[in-house]
From TrEMBL:
UniProt organism field: Pseudohongiella spirulinae
Taxonomic lineage: Bacteria, Pseudomonadati, Pseudomonadota, Gammaproteobacteria, Pseudomonadales
Domain EcxA zinc-binding: 402-711
Pfam families (alphabetical): DUF4953 (PF16313), DUF5117 (PF17148)
Name of the protein described by the UniProt record: Metal-dependent peptidase
InterPro entries: DUF5117, EcxA_zinc-bd, MetalloPept_cat_dom_sf, Zn_MMP-like_bac
Length: 810
């Protein structure tokens, strides 16, 4: 037991230590930030040059903010898909403190309760998981603020680079922290956003071919990743309701407080906040304009073309009463394109051509767009130049200027298209039917041939927005005085679209190989797909007749004509896909039930005459006269010169050098045939005929195909060789359907019967033919059918058709 004196001394010591603790903590804070570079802003941070640490000051507890990650620098491979400036994930997060730990927690906004009842909201919050994205140890305390070391968090692979590399079979990579660090040049602070960046090196073994093609040392891939901590917008933004026919992308969440007689899924569109300075005025300047900034690294004349195309959108905002509400400027030299405050149009280089994108950083709570981000692939304009070069040639006076203008006209369209996505607008792949009503379609150059056989490309691409684009901006950005006025106004806009006959069909219905809508296609023109195909074949024929040395640049080897020839020879490839949709096609719209019963059918099959007309047009593209290259062209194009190797844009071949005209024809024919014999399409043909016997039956379609190909009168010479290649493709694809578990059994039955009958026909044809090459062809075809139907052979005797060179994007 302590004596009174010792007890007093012990109490005095404890009291002294208790008063000293805050001073010790303060000293610890000061020690930690000693010599550090301090940046104040949304979250103050301290960078320590001696250790490379970044310390974050956290004093916003349980306060939601936006966390967005992105990829500042890319790998440069279109196939891998990790591009400069690529937008990553946007999450609503908050910092929480638990003892000496700090958690960065992501809030689950997919499930909510829009209710005034706190208990009801809590029941949903506690029912679904949340995500702790990162945990930190408290290093020092100062009042309500703490210091945490954010360095390891910044050096993690937030963008999923390693996952992307592994998924694309480019190797197994992970971050090497010894070769990674905070990148201070792009680490900045502002009152409403904190911008942080790190340089990361991913190391791995056995790198794939795509990585090897773009990385100096493929075992070490160095890129930069960006992190944005952003204050969430205020509550004055009002989400706008989504409608399937609005032309916008949908965002949604489940509302567990919804009445039981209502849909739990709440759907709304993404859009920028845009408000009139004077809401009562018919025309008013905005409170804050929407400003996009173009990458200053874009060279002329592409720079001016991109500015022109992006600025087209201002006309649509002017039409709904905004004055100078949409602007496009050059990004200031000292601005960071990754800064969340800038809407950016970025010029992105890759080793091969690829897609452009329009993406955005949005508030996950409401769909409000915080940052629009356009990625434009720089090689697109060169592909457009190549297409024009193949059509127009370079020999005539002013031809180079004409080619360049056609390419730039496409780039203006592309700029407007991708900016449209960042305004929240989806694709409209039926717009070409309405006289090119939207820049949100994928346009093919509109070409024609004069009576004198001269190519006319003056109207290749439209200028300005289309009618549909004005209507979508009207739906998304019109301002209303009340929710009631808004509901009535939006309904009126949709009715205007219907009254004007404006069609809208988007990605899901248009990209699928077995898509059925006859008017929704990519890279097409015209209201009548068959008529446009015939016109394109006329253009193609005229351009092939004129094709020659004048299609080359001066100084280019003749072997380079092959790559110039590719887009011309395959000029009709996209319109063929459009015509495919008529066969077994069905009309429909994105209609909704509005409370009144209607007797009108919502799904209407394409009539028999149009289906058979389409089938005949497709079969025309298989004729040797269409597919066989002329002897003049074949004699003009030698094998590649040294230093000018073949590439992915070149024709496939089964010869070691030069042009393989038979395989070239085979690839084009396969494109037509696989579309006709597409499994879902054949199933739909059969089903529709079962419902309405006046529609084409599957046997009728199959017989028509076989009569136009395998059973057609045999030709000789080069045409005969191409004809036999086409026949082999038809048989190979029909047998492939029998081998597939994806094909409906009734479809298989119809194919099996036609092949049995064909087998008998081939036996007679082989016996009757006086030409050895045709005898051999018929015998191989017969053996191939017998190999599968009678012997159950797993391996085909026929070689698989080689793929076409890549087409889209153009």
């Amino acid at each position: 037991m302590l004596s009174p004196a010792r007890h007093y001394a012990f109490l005095l010591l404890c009291l002294t230590l208790s008063f000293a603790l805050p001073a010790h903590a303060q000293q610890s804070w000061n020690d930690l930030i000693d010599g550090a570079d301090h940046q104040t802003g949304f979250f103050d941070f301290y960078y320590k040059p001696d250790t490379g640490q970044l310390l974050l000051q956290v004093n916003r507890w349980n306060e939601d903010f936006l966390y967005a990650n992105s990829l500042s620098t890319g790998i440069g491979s279109n196939d891998i898909g990790l591009d400069r400036g690529q937008v990553g994930s946007s999450r609503v997060v908050r910092f929480e403190r638990h003892g000496n730990k700090v958690f960065l927690k992501q809030i689950n906004l997919a499930y909510r309760a829009e209710s005034d009842s706190a208990a009801e909201r809590l029941s949903v919050t506690e029912a679904f998981a949340e995500s702790i994205l990162a945990g930190f140890t408290v290093l020092a305390v100062q009042g309500d603020a703490v210091l945490i070391d954010l360095t390891d968090f910044l050096l993690t692979d937030a963008h999923g680079v390693s996952t992307t590399l592994q998924r694309s079979q480019q190797g197994s990579y992970s971050v090497d922290k010894s070769r990674s660090a905070v990148y201070l040049d792009r680490t900045r602070n502002f009152p409403l956003n904190t911008e942080l960046e790190a340089q990361l090196t991913f190391t791995g073994t056995q790198p794939g071919a795509w990585v090897r093609s773009v990385t100096p040392t493929p075992e070490a891939i160095t890129v930069r990743q960006h992190h944005s901590f952003v204050q969430l917008p205020d509550d004055n933004y009002q989400p706008r309701a989504f409608h399937p026919a609005s032309g916008y992308w949908s965002r949604s969440y489940m509302d567990f407080a919804a009445p039981i007689n209502e849909d739990m899924t709440r759907r709304y569109i993404s859009r920028h906040r845009l408000e009139k300075r004077d809401p009562t005025a018919a025309r008013s300047e905005p409170v804050e304009p929407i400003i996009y900034y173009l990458d200053p690294g874009v060279p002329e004349p592409v720079r001016s073309a991109l500015l022109d195309g992006a600025r087209w959108w201002n006309a649509a905002f002017e039409a709904i009463g905004f004055i100078d509400a949409f602007r496009v400027e050059i990004l200031p030299e000292d601005a960071d394109p990754m800064d969340i405050r800038y809407n950016v149009i970025q010029w992105v280089h890759r080793s091969t051509r690829g897609w452009s994108y329009g993406s955005s950083v949005t508030d996950p709570r409401t769909g409000e767009i915080i940052k629009g981000k356009v990625t434009l692939g720089s090689l697109r304009v060169r592909q457009d130049y190549r297409i024009a070069q193949s059509l127009i040639g370079l020999a005539g006076e002013g031809s180079d200027e004409a080619i360049q203008e056609l390419a730039l006209a496409r780039i203006r369209q592309l700029s407007a298209h991708e900016v449209g996505h960042t305004l929240g607008i989806a694709h409209n792949f039926a717009a070409s039917v309405n006289d090119r009503a939207s820049v949100m379609d994928y346009p093919h150059p509109l070409l024609d041939v004069t009576d004198q056989g001269v190519l006319n490309a003056l109207d290749a691409y439209d200028v300005g927005l289309g009618t549909w684009d004005f209507q979508t901006i009207k739906y998304g950005y019109s301002q209303y005085a009340s929710p009631q006025d808004e509901a009535a106004g939006l309904a009126a806009i949709l009715q205007e679209n219907r009254d004007a006959g404006l069609l809208y069909i988007t990605d899901l219905d248009s990209r699928a190989e077995g898509g059925s809508h006859p008017l929704s296609h990519l890279w097409d023109n015209g209201a009548d797909p068959v008529e446009e195909l015939q016109r394109l074949l006329d253009v193609r024929r005229a351009a092939l007749n004129r094709f020659g040395p004048g299609n080359l640049r001066v100084g280019e080897p003749y072997g380079e004509l092959e790559d110039v020839l590719v887009p011309l020879y395959l000029l009709h490839r996209y319109q063929v896909e459009a015509v495919h949709r008529l066969v077994g096609g069905t009309f429909y719209e994105y209609s909704v039930y509005e409370g009144e019963a209607t007797s009108s059918d919502q799904v209407i099959p394409v009539n028999t005459d149009d289906q058979m007309r389409a089938l005949d047009a497709l079969l025309q593209t298989l004729e040797p006269e269409v597919l066989t290259l002329s002897p003049d062209i074949l004699a003009l194009i030698p094998p590649r010169a040294p230093g000018y190797g073949r590439n992915r844009e070149s024709f496939p071949l089964r010869t070691s050098l030069g042009l393989d005209f038979v395989t070239i024809a085979e690839t084009a024919a396969d494109h037509t045939i696989t579309g006709i014999l597409q499994a879902e399409r054949l199933t739909r043909i059969n089903n529709l005929n079962m419902l309405d016997s006046s529609l084409p039956s599957l046997p009728v379609v199959l017989v028509r195909v076989l009569d136009a190909t395998v059973r057609a009168n045999p030709q000789q010479g080069a045409n005969g060789a191409v004809q036999r290649a086409v026949n082999n493709v038809v048989i190979y694809r029909m047998l492939g359907l029998l081998r597939s578990d994806r094909v409906d059994n009734q479809v298989k039955a119809a194919i099996n019967l036609q092949l049995r009958r064909l087998e008998d026909w081939l036996e007679d044809a082989a016996d009757d033919s006086a030409h050895p090459e045709w005898q051999a062809h018929y015998q191989l075809a017969q053996d191939e059918i017998e190999n599968w139907l009678d012997r159950g052979g797993e391996n085909s005797l026929l070689s698989a058709p080689l793929p076409m060179p890549p087409g889209a994007p153009i």
